[in-house]
Amino acid sequence: MTDTVEGRLHPITPWRRAWAITATVAMLVFRDLPELAESAREWPRWLLALLIAGVALLAVTYGYGSWRKTSYRLTPDALYYSSGIVFHRRRRFELAHLQAADIRRPLLGRLIGVCTLRLSVTGQSSDLAYLGTRQAAILHRALLANMARDSTSESTSHNEDTARPLMSVSPRMLALAIVLDARIMASAAGMLLVGLMPYLLSTEPLALFSLAGVLGPVWRMTARPWIQWFGWRVTPEPGGNRTQFGLFDTQHHTLRHQRTQALLLEQPVLWRRKNWVRISLATAGHAPQLLAPVATYQEAQHLVRDLYGPEAVDAMETAGPAPHRARWATLFSRALSYRAASGYLCVWRGLFLRNVVHLCPASKIQGIGLLQGPWQRRLRLATVRIELAGGPRLKARHRDADEAAAIAAAARASSIAAH
C-alpha cells in the first residue's frame, strides 16, 4: 500500500492566468494614458510610490494566499485537490476510476522547471498545474503504483520487462508515414488549390496572399503532427503502457490495460506496401487514444501480444470473409471479415483509402444485437452488432443469417463466461 503523499503546487501556479488580468489593466491604462500622465504630474511623488507599493503588495498577498490554499494529498484510495481563497473548492479523484495520469511539459515549462499532471477519469480530465519536475515525478510514480495495485495479474503478466521500450518511431519513418497518408495529402492539396485559385484566375501577384488563409490548416495536417509525435516511444508500465512524445512540448500518457475496451489498427492505402499500421486504443468515456502513430506489422503484433496475449494475435491473423452473395448487398463485401477465437473478437472493414481492424476481448462486451434489413432478408444475410462499454461499436456485416445467429450466441456465451 502506498504511503500518503501531499504537498502544494509550484509557487508560479497562481500567476498562470495573470496574463488576462495584466492585459485588461494595460488596456484600461493605455486607453487613457495621456489623461493619466497629465493628472499624475500634479500628484506628490510619495503618493505615486504609495499607490505602486500598494498594488504590488496586494498582488503578492493574493499570489501567496492562493498558493497556500492550493494543495493536494494522495492516499491509497483517492487524490484530494483543494484550491480557492474566497470560495474554497475540494475535489476527490477515486484511484479505482483513474484511467491515466499523464505528464505534460510545454517548452516554457521545461525552461523554468515546471509541468502539468493530467488526470483522466471516466468521461473527464483535470489538470494539476503547475508542479515542479521532481515533485510531479514523485506524485506520478505514486499514482502509477496505486493504479498497478488495482490491475489484474493477467494485465501485469505481459509487462515483465519494464526497462526496455516496446517500440519507438524514428523521425524519418514518421515523416514518410504522413506523406504517404493519401487522405491527409489529398486534403492538403485541395486546400492549396483553393488558395491558389484566385491567382490562377487573375494572374495578379497580389492574389497569392489568398494562400495565407489555407497555410494554417495545411500546417496542422502535415507538419504539426510530425512535431507533436516526434520521438514517439512506448514503454511498459505496471498494468499498462506509457507513451512519450513531442519535439517542443514533451508529453507522457499512461494507458491502462484494465481500462482498454478494444484495439484499432488502421492502414491507409499507401502504407500497405510497407505493411505499416496506426494503432489506437478505445477506452471507456474517451475518444480512441493513440498507441503508435505508425508501426510495422511485426511491432503491432508485439504490442497486441503485450496487451492481450498470444491468443489475440492468433485471432487477428485469420479472417473469415463474408459470403459470396454479400456482393449484392455492398460493393465492399470483399473487405468485410469477422473472426472469433480464444475469447477475442476481430472485425475487418475498409477497402480503398483505409483498412481498419477492430480487436476486443469477449469480456468487454456489454450488448449484442442482430440486425437484418429487407434486402438482407432476401439474400439470407444479417449483421451482428456488438456494443462495448464506451468504446467503438463493432459490426460483423453481411454474414450468412445462420452464421450471424451462431456468432451472436457464441459472443453472448463468451461474454457470460468471461464475466
Description:
With 419 residues, this protein is of the alpha+beta class. It has 14 helices and 21 strands. The chain has a 7-stranded antiparallel beta sheet, sandwiched between helices. It has a 7-stranded antiparallel beta sheet with strand order 14-13-12-18-17-16-15. About 3% of the residues have low confidence.
SSE order and pairing:
Blueprint: E1 5-8, H1 18-31, H2 33-40, H3 45-68, E2 71-74, E3 78-83, E4 89-94, E5 98-105, H4 107-112, E6 114-121, E7 124-132, H5 133-150, H6 153-157, E8 167-168, H7 171-179, H8 182-202, H9 212-221, H10 223-228, E9 233-237, E10 240-245, E11 250-256, E12 260-268, E13 276-283, E14 289-296, H11 297-307, H12 310-317, E15 320-321, E16 337-341, E17 344-349, E18 354-361, E19 365-371, H13 374-379, E20 381-388, E21 394-400, H14 401-418
Antiparallel strand pairs: 1-2, 2-3, 3-4, 5-6, 5-11, 6-7, 8-9, 9-10, 10-11, 12-13, 12-18, 13-14, 15-16, 16-17, 17-18, 19-20, 20-21
